[in-house]
Amino acid sequence: MDTVNTSLTTVLVVDDEVRSQDAMRRTLDEDFIVLTAGSAAEARSLLEQQEVSVILCDQRMPGLSGVVFLKEVRERWPDTVRIVISGYTDTEDLISGINEAGIYQYILKPWIPDHLLATVRNAVEAQGLQRDTNRLHLELRSSTPVLRERAASNLAQARQAFDFERIERAPGSPLDAVCELAARVARYDLSTLVLGESGSGKELLARAMHYASPRANKAFVSENCAAMPDTLLESELFGHKRGAFTGAFEDHAGLFQRANGGTVFLDEIGETSPAFQVRLLRVLQEREVRPVGAARAVPVDVRVIAATHRDLEQRVREGLFREDLFYRIAGVTLTVPPLRERVGDIAPIARRLLQEVGQELGLSPARAAALRLSDEALGVLMAYPWPGNVRELRNEIARALALSEGEGLAAQSFSPRVLQGQTGAGLAALAPGLGQAASGTLVERLDAIEAVILRETLLRQRWNKTRAAKELGLSRVGLRAKMARFGLEG
């Protein structure tokens, strides 16, 4: 069994396959304390010893199946969020147990790391919101003024936390224009389509729009449309009635009903099937949902913000996305530029992430605030193209922080992928002296360029002078002479 650090949120992974345990641990352990169990009995023992926020349980295990075990968890530890993972392509058997076990979400194998992480994050957030709701209900019974004061305070805190100004960026960033347009659009009930690569911050922009809108005092709910088959996605968004299918033992309100008066964020809408697109279009046109198995539709008042990394116009031309749905969701289109197109934002984002990750790893707020990135480290980060955008940057910061000693984050702590993946466009970040190449004599300009190349090679080779000299076609003596000439000690 695992040792526990109770200062962070704890997630329990229950799977009889060690490789699956390890894969989920690697995906989650940057954000959570991850415990593992190979059987229901081992998981039960862990739950009896300590508090667990979320359980990820495989459906097929020796002895008890996942949903049968989670039914027991629901009875004994009702506050724990329950998620089941299965490789079944036919979900009927699973659905029969989902409601009895009070399963928060069902994940189909092979699972996607980003989706798994997002699901657990949402589960923890949902658990916190439920606790807040329960507390507010108690306050309502005792004092209505207290409830009003708490609601106003929570709303003020949320608006501050998700304000457009809190979206980290440098002065003059390309994001300024995007945020300015989003802030103007937020005031009106216009359906909005947010385009951008995975990890670029589309949901953060959507949340800022919600809390800048008149709907801010109502719920903001999100769903990744690429993560579920149509049947489960329809039930999750639109709800279902008791008896609608095998295992539907009680009515289930969908996200559209739960967000009534607020905002629904549909991520990766470009991955939905044509059949589901028809049902979603009807909901948006009629402003009502018909839960699965219901005889009548239920009116809903929500604002929809959709997002995708796909080129939806191209998918419309290819017949993969309905044209009428495209025009329905794209009342206004916002495009979040990838991180490689806003190199200036990398430094402030990295500094912010350094403090956040430091606290997540158990550092005190004061010690986390004291963490610093060296100039060389920032240079390396600004020279890398970041295909995974902010999400990849966060992972790299966490890795480097774990490998570094002291309060300074050194360039050598970054992964070989980052050190070796520098682009020509980013080399200027490695040495301020490159700006000298734009003026001065020819010799002075060549010296500035040579200094940049020399420093970049040393960083990529982790200051191994033998390898750096070999790559540059120099002797070690010649390399040392050039390092001394340009003030590069290492």
TrEMBL record:
Does this UniProt record's set of keywords contain Nucleotide-binding? yes
Q: Which Gene Ontology molecular function entries are recorded, alphabetically?
A: ATP binding; sequence-specific DNA binding
PTM sites of type 4-aspartylphosphate:
D58
| Residue span, Sigma-54 factor interaction domain | 175-402
Gene Ontology biological process terms from the UniProt entry: phosphorelay signal transduction system; regulation of DNA-templated transcription
Residues annotated as domain Response regulatory: 10-124
Keywords assigned by UniProt? ATP-binding, DNA-binding, Nucleotide-binding, Phosphoprotein, Transcription, Transcription regulation
Carries keyword Transcription?
yes
Q: What is this protein called?
A: Two-component system response regulator HupR/HoxA
